[in-house]
Structures are given as structure tokens and as C-alpha cells.
Amino acid sequence: xxxxxxxxxxxxxxxxxxxxxxxxxxxxxxxSPCTVKLERNALILSVRSSxxxxxxxxxxxxxxxxxxLKHRLVIRSNY
Length: 79
Fold this sequence. Notes:
With 79 residues, this protein is α+β, with helices and mostly antiparallel strands.
């Protein structure tokens, strides 16, 4: 039987490249800060304004293709 240390030693705890790609896309295109986190099978993208969230929702397919996303994308506004 494997010990807990062996199991955790094999686990990759680094965040996926998708997170950085989405953050970079929003930062370059809209010059706005955002947060991206991975929950279960979805990337949660949180932005400051509802207007930006709506704009990103309209560009959703383009964002998915340019960033090479494999997870489902959820766009939220913080306010």
C-alpha cells in the first residue's frame, strides 16, 4: 500500500496553462484585472464589471479557441 507521502509526491499541483492564458487574454485585450480558478470541470473567470462580462460572453467561442481551453468556461461579474 502506498503511503500518503508517495501519493502526494506523484501529484502535480501546478495550475494548468489555461488559467494563465485566459488571464493574459483579458489583460492584453481589455486592460482589466481578472481572476481565474479551476473548480471541478469548469474554469471560473471573474471580472470587475458586468459590461465586461457580457462582452466576454459574446466573444466566448473566440476566447476558447485562442486559449485552447479544454474545460467548460463560466464568466462571472464580481459586482
